[in-house]
Design goal:
The chain has 185 residues and is mainly α. 65% of the residues lie in helices and 6% in strands. The longest helix is centred in the N-terminal third of the chain and has 24 residues. The chain starts with a helix and ends in a 6-residue tail after the last helix.
Length: 185
């Protein structure tokens, strides 16, 4: 009986709800590769899992408004620009960190849905301009309100001191990583 219990524990599926997924993976690697220090997984593995969970929780709100994550990002970038809520496609790509090719597809979909329009810029320096329609403005204002309510809900799992400490740590880590030379590994 004891042998059977050990056998079941060793081959336990990480997602069966019986423990910390990352800790189970680390334990398996420590068993299989005791020569390696797998301690970074404690942070990086948990951040990956947390990011995936947060993305899933956030996209549920976007979907209620008929938007993908990328489409929400485009509308939000236009809304943040302030009246008249427009940007050149290249600016949108920079503000949403996607390629211009991916941006074109998002704009096409949003234009078909009547949420944005494309036109030639009056000053002609920016070439084409993408702007929110009235319907797009109404939709992003409503969707962003729901999005912020959702983010507050997700962050409520931490007390204010924990949230502030986590923000400071993540900010410092991000700055250092972005300032570091690219890895050669």
């Amino acid at each position: 009986m004891e042998h059977q219990h050990q056998h079941q524990h060793q081959h336990q599926h990480p997602d069966d709800g019986s423990g910390d997924h990352v800790a189970l993976i680390q334990a398996a690697w420590r068993r299989e590769r005791p020569d390696l220090d797998v301690s970074p997984q404690a942070v990086i593995g948990r951040l990956h899992r947390l990011a995936a969970r947060l993305t899933a929780e956030l996209t549920l709100v976007y979907q209620r408004y008929g938007l993908s994550e990328g489409e929400f990002d485009v509308l939000a970038a236009l809304r943040r620009a302030g009246a008249p809520y427009e940007r050149a496609p290249g600016e949108l790509a920079a503000h949403t960190m996607v390629t211009t090719g991916a941006m074109t597809k998002r704009i096409d979909r949003l234009e078909r849905a009547g949420l944005v329009t494309r036109r030639t810029a009056e000053d002609d320096r920016r070439g084409r301009v993408v702007a929110l329609t009235d319907a797009g403005l109404r939709l992003i204002d409503e969707a962003f309100t729901a999005h912020m309510r959702n983010e507050h809900r997700l962050l409520a799992h931490l007390d204010p001191g924990e949230a502030a400490a986590l923000e400071a740590l993540l900010t410092a880590w991000q700055r250092r990583l972005e300032g570091a030379a690219p890895s050669t590994i």
